[in-house]
Amino acid sequence: MRVWQANAASVLLGLALWCHSGSVTGEPSAQCSTGRLLLTGSSTMAPLMIAVARRFGSIHPGVCIEVQTGGSGQGVSDARQGKADIGMAARILAESEGDLYGFPIARDGVAVIVHKDNPVRTLGDRQLIDIFTGKVTNWAQVGGRDASIQVLAGEASRGSSELFMHYLRIKYDDIRPQRVIGDNAPRIKAVAEAPSAVVYVSVGEAERNAKAGVPIKLLPVASVEATSQNVRHGSFPISRPLTLVTRGLPNGLAKKFVEFSLSSQITDLVIAYDFIPYLD
């Protein structure tokens, strides 16, 4: 992976349109007088990048920016194939992706969540492995109620899946989920609606939902509470950078957007979305 840092004082261009998962908002394409950018990839990063795009556009309108989800793997693939100007990957780039450029803009963690009413307060690494691989199938086996465990998982291409499997030292093909769910939001919704469910999601997004009253709780990992503060301190063991990815060293409009995303001008947005500024 090649990591590039930009001058925060660079000249900025603007935004007239953005969209999320294909839902277009803002000016029609005819108003994109200055240029267009397409960002694809991580659902964890998408809400933050939409907010960044809005701010980018408030300074100099005239650029259309579209933000689509699909997972970190898709963001990397789209950037490599030229299908997207910028990919979004909620992970570091692998050695096999050394032909790409990575720009870490924030940090996040991956948390295990259960329903708020689930009496289980903590799960050890061995217990997590056994639950996700199907060796433990009832909550009573790990100190909970006598109820079947509903194992949920993200898609294999998701950054959270890659990081979670890497931490547990298992392969994605080893897990036995009852359901595979894409984005963080529907994963959280599924647990909120199912008292026997368990899944892994973004720490920042889970923390934000829990604070808003969604009936979920974040379980500690290796006796460390799953909080943004612990991600910031470096004590939470399942953490990751949120990375913008380009096929070559960016230029033109893509460079200006990456520079803006690396600058202190978005620090408050990073914090507002419960992520950690990459350089703080």
Distance between the termini: 22 Å
What do we call the CATH topology of the largest domain? D-Maltodextrin-Binding Protein, domain 2
CATH C-level label of the largest domain: Alpha Beta
SSE succession: EEEEHEHEEHEHEHEHEHEHHE
Structural description of this entry:
This protein is of the alpha/beta class and 280 residues long. Strands 1, 2, 3, 4, 5, 6, 7, 8, 9, 10, 11, 12 and 13 form a 13-stranded mixed sheet that branches. Helix 1 links the parallel strand 4 and strand 5. The longest helix has 14 residues. The radius of gyration is 19 Å and the shape is elongated.
Topology at a glance:
Elements: E1 2-3, E2 17-20, E3 23-26, E4 35-41, H1 46-59, E5 63-69, H2 72-81, E6 86-89, E7 101-115, H3 125-132, E8 150-153, H4 159-168, E9 179-180, H5 184-192, E10 197-202, H6 203-211, E11 216-219, H7 228-233, E12 239-246, H8 252-262, H9 267-272, E13 276-277
Parallel strand pairs: 1-7, 2-5, 4-5, 4-6, 8-9, 8-10
Antiparallel strand pairs: 2-3, 6-12, 7-10, 7-11, 7-12, 7-13
